[in-house]
Amino acid sequence: MRKAVNICIIIAVAGSWLAMALYGQGTLAENGFGNLKYFTVLSNLLEGAASVIWLVMSGRDESAKIKAERLKYVAASAVMLTFTVVMGFLGPLYGYGSMFTGANLFFHLIIPLVAAAEVIFLSDAEYTASDNALTVIPPLVYGTVYLLNNIVNGIGEWPDTNDWYTFLAWGYPAGIGIFAVICAVTWLLGLLMRKLQIKIPAKHRQEPDRCRR
Question: How far is the C-alpha of 91 from the C-alpha of 104, rounded, in Å?
Answer without folding.
Answer: 12
